[in-house]
Amino acid sequence: MKIRTLILCGAMALVMASCSTKQSAISQLEDFSYELRDHSRYYDTNDWEKAGKKFVNIREKISKHEFDYTAEEKAKIGRLEGECAKYMAKGAKEGVFDKLKNIGSEIKGILEGILGIF
Questions:
Q1: What is each CA distance from 110 to 9, 13, 81, 90, in whole angstroms?
Q2: Nearest Cα to Cα of residue 64 among 18, 12, 112, 16
């Protein structure tokens, strides 16, 4: 009986950790969208480079759970990604994005896919 209880508790802990991890990725994306909203107008080239890397990192975390998200969560992720892309596109429009050195093609591909700006 104790072994069954121990196994059940372990399984519940894994389920809770998994939910926490997938939710933390959404929370990070939401926080990042607020960060861009509140501060991106003051970003220089270095700030945009850091923001691009941060966005890619968050996207990687989200993609690890892509099959675990509900339709509602996927809609929220899409909305938040769109908001982030809007601020990044605005940075591109103002010429800052073109000055980035090591941002990589991933961000440009995301923006191209979402907005078709390149």
A1: 40, 35, 9, 14
A2: 18
Q: What does DSSP assign to residue 104?
A: -
C-alpha span between 118 and 116 (Å, rounded): 6
Look-up of token digits 């907005």: 115
Counting every residue written for the chain, the total comes to: 118
107 contact partners, CB below 8 Å, separation of at least 6:
52, 55, 56, 88
- Whether pTM > 0.85 for this model: the answer is no
Provide the sign of the torsion angle of the four alpha carbons 116, 26, 24, 68, taken in this order.
negative
pLDDT in tens, 61-88: 999 998 999 999 999 999 999 999 898 8
Lookup result for tokens 């809007």: 86
Asked whether 64 and 24 are in contact (CB, 8 A), the reply is no
